[in-house]
Specification:
The chain is built from 18 helices and 14 strands. It has 490 residues and is an alpha/beta fold. A 7-stranded parallel β-sheet has the order 3-4-2-5-6-1-7, sandwiched between helices. It has a 7-stranded parallel β-sheet with strand order 10-11-9-12-13-8-14, with helices on both faces. Bound molecules: adenosine-5'-triphosphate and magnesium ion. One of its GO terms (molecular function) is RNA helicase activity.
């Protein structure tokens, strides 16, 4: 571990890092910060939860000229939630320097954003569509930007944002520094790098595994029709602090969150068809712990950093190995431990091997728990609660009633009755889940042709390849295609 002092960081920023509780730099931070301060173009790849945001944020903030009240840095992120999260982290890092950071994303009142842009922020964090909107309206000028960052670069490529990104970068001076960051850097990123970057250096943190070693990874073979019961049994047995359940499509997410709620779990779903207000309120409730199961699509959870997520359940195996890496990376962050459970249909076994080949790590097989085991798990939870209550030492009020009860029955019978009352017995309330087809053994499509394949996040009707400006006669961006589900996560 390298000390932050040795990386050439300013005293003000060092203070902010201390305030954030960062003591030592992570490997990706140690490797990229000095290079970034020298204005090198970089492609940074490091495991999930290892501090890539600060890796690009610290040098960007230190390179701002605070004499100038103009936008000097821009971060492009694939989803609104991520744009918000990144801007919050940058705000904290820039606290010592009083850096003004503004996030702009779709689904938020554009006039409010225009007003905020007039306050001369130093750094903008945004989603591609809304950034481009402002550029076209001339409400966002990037001519003084010296640092451009593409966070989750591969995801933005997957989502078909390549043309938008090209247009955004075209309005930034060529002498800029361009940085690409993600936990996964599949081959097509190279092409992106060739187009947008100057002699980029690739920084890959040298670890054997793409996934974080602190995440225990299991797979469970289960028939489609039993999956839901098995999920609830695991939730009962493992009793996660917070957990994320991934479903393949938006419909799946809706059905799963409804089904979990019906069975008494505090669960809600998040995906791109929900209103911005709803998405934010669901995330807020999850962070506060007033719901403890978040059901999500792949895209909804990319890059999200929520502390307390102890378990990730891949209710459906992800559609590609990269998504697997990002999904399970919602747990085991910043040195914490985590558990990832992946459910597979027996016909998906060879697909599982493909995922394992990419991550260079085997998942351990776990048997689906039986009803009795689920019940035992629940009992354990109750016993823990009882022990905590005993420790709290505030039982005086109940003493007389307890003694009266023990006059009538022996102590074991009394405790048994209490355990029975407090234990959540398996709930068999019928739920509706539409069946999903198993994943084929081989990728039967090009890796980056994922249109409509991940719950409609692909860019329907979006052109690929060379940039073709999509403008209508009024010169504004044509939003007819953004009506579809595809772009609703921007
Ligand atoms: N040097 C550090 N010391 C302690 N905590 C850190 C340090 N750097 C970052 N963190 C914290 O670690 C967590 C994960 O960081 P971050 O979200 O940047 O990870 P990431 O590498 O971008 O992950 P992902 O690939 O999932 O996007 C955050 O809560 C962040 O504040
Ligand atoms: Mg990140």
């Amino acid at each position: 571990m390298t000390k932050f002092q040795d990386l050439g960081i300013s005293a003000e920023t060092m203070k902010s890092l201390k305030r954030m509780g960062f003591e030592e730099s992570t490997p990706i931070q140690a490797e990229t910060i000095p290079l970034s301060l020298e204005n090198k173009d970089l492609i940074g790849q490091a495991q999930t939860g290892t501090g890539k945001t600060a890796a690009f944020g610290i040098p960007m903030i230190d390179k701002i000229d605070y004499e100038k009240n103009v936008i000097q840095g821009i971060v492009v992120a694939p989803t609104r939630e991520l744009a918000i999260q990144v801007s919050e982290e940058l705000y904290k890092i820039g606290f010592g320097k009083k850096t003004r950071v503004l996030s702009i994303y779709g689904g938020q009142d554009i006039n409010r954003q225009i007003r905020a842009l007039k306050n001369n922020p130093h750094i903008i964090v945004g989603t591609p569509g809304r950034l481009l909107d402002h550029i076209n309206r001339k409400t966002l000028r990037l001519d003084h930007v010296h640092t451009a960052i593409l966070d989750e670069a591969d995801e933005m490529l997957n989502m078909g944002f390549i043309d938008d990104i090209e247009s955004i970068l075209a309005s930034i001076p060529k002498e800029r520094q361009t940085l690409l960051f993600s936990a996964t850097m599949p081959a097509p990123i190279q092409r992106m790098a060739e187009r947008f970057m100057r002699d980029p250096q690739v920084i890959r943190v040298k670890t054997k595994e793409v996934t974080v070693p602190l995440i225990e990874q299991f797979y469970v073979e289960v028939q489609e029709k039993s999956k839901f019961d098995v999920l609830t049994r695991f939730l009962d047995i493992q009793s996660p602090e917070l957990s994320i359940v991934f479903g393949r499509t938006k419909r799946r997410v809706d059905e799963l969150s409804e089904a979990l709620t019906l069975r008494g779990y505090m669960a809600e779903g998040i995906h791109g068809d929900l209103s911005q207000a709803k998405r934010m309120s669901v995330l807020r409730k999850f962070k506060e712990g007033s719901i403890d199961v978040l059901v999500a699509t792949d895209v909804a959870a990319r890059g999200l950093d929520i502390s307390g997520v102890t378990h990730v359940y891949n209710f459906d195996i992800p559609q590609d190995p990269e998504s697997y890496v990002h999904r399970i990376g919602r747990t085991g962050r910043a040195g914490k431990e985590g558990v990832a459970m992946t459910f597979i249909n027996p016909r998906e076994k060879s697909y599982l091997k493909i995922v394992e080949k990419t991550t260079k790590r085997k998942m351990e097989r776990m048997e689906a728990p039986t009803l009795d085991e689920a019940l035992e798990g629940q009992q354990k939870v109750v016993v823990e609660r009882i022990e905590q209550t005993i420790e709290s030492n505030q039982l005086q009020f109940y003493k007389q009633t307890a003694e009266d009860l023990l006059q009538k029955h022996d102590s074991s019978t009394v405790v048994q009755a209490l355990l029975k009352m407090m234990t959540k017995e398996p709930d068999t309330t019928p739920v509706k889940l539409t069946e999903e087809k198993p994943m084929p053994a081989k990728r039967d499509r090009k890796p980056y042709d994922r249109n409509n394949s991940r719950g409609g996040y692909g860019q329907k009707g979006r052109s690929k390849g060379t940039y073709k400006p999509r403008q209508n006669q009024t010169g504004k961006r044509n939003h007819s295609s953004s009506k579809s589900n595809s772009s609703s996560f921007r």
